Amino acid sequence: MSTGLDPVVIVSAARTAIGSFNGSLSTVPVHELGSVVIKEVLKRASVAPEDVSEVIFGHVLSAGCGQNPVRQSSVGAGIPYVVPAWSCQMICGSGLKAVCLGAQSIGSGESSVVIAGGMESMSKAPHFVHLRTGLKMGETPLKDSVICDGLTDAFHNYHMGITAENVAQKWKVSREDQDGYALLSQKRTENAQKAGYFDKEIVPVSVPSRKGPVEVKTDEFPRHGSTLEAISKLKPCFLTDGSGTITAANASGMNDGAAAVVLMKKSEAERRGLTPLAQIVSWSQVGVDPSIMGSGPIPAIRQAVAKANWTLDDVDAFEINEAFASLAVAVSKELGLNPEKVNIQGGAIALGHPIGSSGCRILVTLLHTLERMGGTRGVAALCIGGGMGIAMCVKRE
After folding, report:
1. 337 in helix, strand or coil?
2. Which among 144, 194, 121 is positioned nearest to 352, based on CA atoms?
3. Domain Thiolase C-terminal spans what residues (predicted)?
4. pTM, 2 dp
5. What is the pLDDT of residues 58-90, one digit of tens each?
6. Exposure winner among 143, 203, 245, 254, fewest CB in 10 A?
7. 167 in any annotated domain
């Protein structure tokens, strides 16, 4: 963990806007999204590129992106060749796991300044086919790497949506509960966007077009003006026997984006005259039954909070990734969380879920939320495909 006299602190945090699938960021290669946020967090922290010890990013859908896309992002951001860069793959938890790895690297003395984060372009993820041994006759289907590598449980060979249905059944989360939660997420995000609450955390991305560069600086996925009537009309996507509850409206989207933070020890921040956004107090990762992977945040949050020597009531704000409304409701119900403390500016149902980026995205949002509201303690957590959960506790001075 990162407690003690000289804890690891976060001195800078930023993200791109989140683009819709085949939307405003769909033409931007994923490594360029990574470069944008790396440049921005360095600028905000007044850290020279040559001062960086290591770059660690979560990235899930790497097929066709070229050798080590994170290394491409690092070099593209002006960080020298001598600085290593690498990716970690923990599905939805990748972006937060990267921050844990960065904190561990600093805590062990291996690194002094680490850029950690996550990136994903689900729009650019390719379809593929295995033809190494040839195809003598007939057709062969293409596989979708988004579905195969990002959204299908490898143990049961079914979509993440089925695991969300399993959570809904086990925790008795009704369709009405899920639709109500989805509407709340949309309303909170709409209010936050109109109030400018996300502006400080977002770095604009310049996207080339035939009419010249277009600056993308607003999350594209939220549906302003959502109503319960419209949400409740949608048909279930995964179970069509009359028992299904998961729809396109109460699930997160497929999206593009990147996020990053700069990590260093508190003493290093003081030496540089930097005021930390927060210190990393603890983190935890757990495994659960893959068929109910959405329950992963429950033990992960409990363990991380226990390691921090906090109680759940001590926490001022939670950012819990809204992969599906069923799990968001189940996690809050099981932990007995105050809904006024959870995803107070909405979550992935409204904002979107670029899987490799989301872990760091929710941390970036949490840090800026705590700063804006004057809160002290925060928890970021995600469920993870394959049956896992990850959580991190941070504290502002």
Report:
1. coil
2. 121
3. 274-395
4. 0.97
5. 999 999 999 999 999 999 999 999 999 999 999
6. 143
7. no
Mean pLDDT of 13-30: 98
CATH number of the domain bearing residue 343: 3.40.47.10
Considering Cα of 59, then 64, then 65, then 68, what sign does the dihedral take? positive
User: What's the domain count of the chain?
Assistant: 1
List the domain range (segments joined by +) for residue 109.
8-125+253-395
- Evaluate whether residue 230 is within a structural domain: no
Are 394 and 305 spatial neighbours (Cβ–Cβ below 8 Å)?
Answer: no
* Spatial distance between the Cα atoms of 358 and 254, rounded to a whole number of angstroms: 11
**Token pair of 247, please?**
């729809």
Catalytic residues: 92, 353, 383
Residue 66 lies in a domain: yes
* Nearest partner of 190 among 216, 224, 217, 219, judged by Cα: 224
In a domain, 99, yes or no: yes
